[in-house]
């Protein structure tokens, strides 16, 4: 029963440059190997959501960021494992060129390509939402 599963809070950044989105592929030796995701990670106890995302993006991609508003929130149950509360934030400004520190690969892709990638199940609802949402205009310094 899913209600007895532990819940993990995960934050992720929606990073855009012009009409392309930054997506990351999990390493082949990681859980959910070679699945695509938006960059981010687990929130540490006592850590504010935006601070957690800022830390994760610096660790994973080597960029400094200004975290914008929360864009989307959902819960996904991974049967017999855990429930993930996924909180996606717009990253309105980032400084530096994203570098791959922990992934199999990173890519900039147009919105139309997102549904064709093998994303984590928890991201599917967000990808459908992005196809219908009005987009804020991020910037890169």
From TrEMBL:
<dbReference type="InterPro" id="IPR015797">
    <property type="entry name" value="NUDIX_hydrolase-like_dom_sf"/>
</dbReference>
<dbReference type="GO" id="GO:0035539">
    <property type="term" value="F:8-oxo-7,8-dihydrodeoxyguanosine triphosphate pyrophosphatase activity"/>
</dbReference>
<dbReference type="GO" id="GO:0046872">
    <property type="term" value="F:metal ion binding"/>
</dbReference>
<keyword id="KW-0378">Hydrolase</keyword>
<feature type="domain" description="Nudix hydrolase">
    <location>
        <begin position="5"/>
        <end position="131"/>
    </location>
</feature>
<dbReference type="GO" id="GO:0006260">
    <property type="term" value="P:DNA replication"/>
</dbReference>
<protein>
    <recommendedName>
        <fullName>8-oxo-dGTP diphosphatase</fullName>
        <ecNumber>3.6.1.55</ecNumber>
    </recommendedName>
</protein>
<keyword id="KW-0227">DNA damage</keyword>
<keyword id="KW-0515">Mutator protein</keyword>
<dbReference type="GO" id="GO:0008413">
    <property type="term" value="F:8-oxo-7,8-dihydroguanosine triphosphate pyrophosphatase activity"/>
</dbReference>
<keyword id="KW-0460">Magnesium</keyword>
<dbReference type="GO" id="GO:0044716">
    <property type="term" value="F:8-oxo-GDP phosphatase activity"/>
</dbReference>
<comment type="similarity">
    <text>Belongs to the Nudix hydrolase family.</text>
</comment>
<keyword id="KW-0479">Metal-binding</keyword>
<dbReference type="InterPro" id="IPR000086">
    <property type="entry name" value="NUDIX_hydrolase_dom"/>
</dbReference>
<dbReference type="GO" id="GO:0044715">
    <property type="term" value="F:8-oxo-dGDP phosphatase activity"/>
</dbReference>
<dbReference type="GO" id="GO:0006281">
    <property type="term" value="P:DNA repair"/>
</dbReference>
<dbReference type="InterPro" id="IPR020476">
    <property type="entry name" value="Nudix_hydrolase"/>
</dbReference>
<dbReference type="InterPro" id="IPR047127">
    <property type="entry name" value="MutT-like"/>
</dbReference>
<keyword id="KW-0234">DNA repair</keyword>
<dbReference type="Pfam" id="PF00293">
    <property type="entry name" value="NUDIX"/>
</dbReference>
<keyword id="KW-0235">DNA replication</keyword>
